[in-house]
Specification:
Elements (H helix, E strand, L loop, with lengths): L1 H9 L49 E8 L5 E9 L2 E11 L3 E6 L4 E4 L4 E4 L6 E7 L2 E7 L16 E4 L7
Antiparallel strand pairs: 1-2, 2-3, 3-4, 5-6, 6-7, 7-8, 8-9
Length: about 170
């Protein structure tokens, strides 16, 4: 008899799958419908009536020099009229890393609104120019071929103050 129990204990069978059904919604009279989740504004935005910046044609003109606290130096000559780039030359020197140089002759304009976009098809380099408050930002993406050494890894966007034409 002991042998029968041991053999029976070793026998296995596949259990039948149990169908899973979703639980029905509660029909209690005390239950309340699910409340919608609303987006909550950030604390520093409470009470402020902020509106999106309108899309408008970019107009900026500057010929500036700049340097940063790490010793980097640069120059930029930029003219954008009615979202069309007329002149663009920028050079940024980063100590112990190299030099980045961008010239309009290497690019063609691929977008005007909301950002001005310059693209170099040969290298894949993209320069984006946009207005933000009282300033204009010139940012670089995938532009390693325009830089010597490891300079592109240290290249930051160039900011232009539209009130006085200075850049940093």
């Amino acid at each position: 008899m002991l042998m029968t129990f041991l053999v029976a204990a070793c026998a296995t069978h596949d259990p039948e799958p149990v169908p899973v059904t979703p639980e029905p919604a509660s029909t209690d009279s005390n239950s309340q419908p699910a409340e919608k989740i609303k987006s909550q504004p950030l604390r520093h935005l409470l009470g402020r009536s902020l509106k999106p910046m309108p899309d408008r044609e970019l107009n900026v003109r500057t010929r500036c020099r700049f340097h940063d606290v790490a010793g980097g130096r640069g120059t930029m000559d930029l003219q954008v009229t009615k979202a069309e780039v007329k002149r663009f030359v920028a050079e940024v020197s980063i100590p112990k890393q190299g030099l980045c140089r961008f010239e309009m002759k290497n690019f063609h304009q691929t977008a005007t609104l909301p950002n001005v976009v310059l693209t170099d098809d040969a290298s894949g380099c993209v320069v984006r120019i946009w207005e933000q408050g009282k300033g204009v930002t010139v940012a670089f993406n995938a532009c390693q071929s325009m830089c010597g050494g490891d300079a592109f890894s240290y290249l930051w966007p160039i900011l232009v103050d539209t009130r006085n034409g200075r850049c940093s």
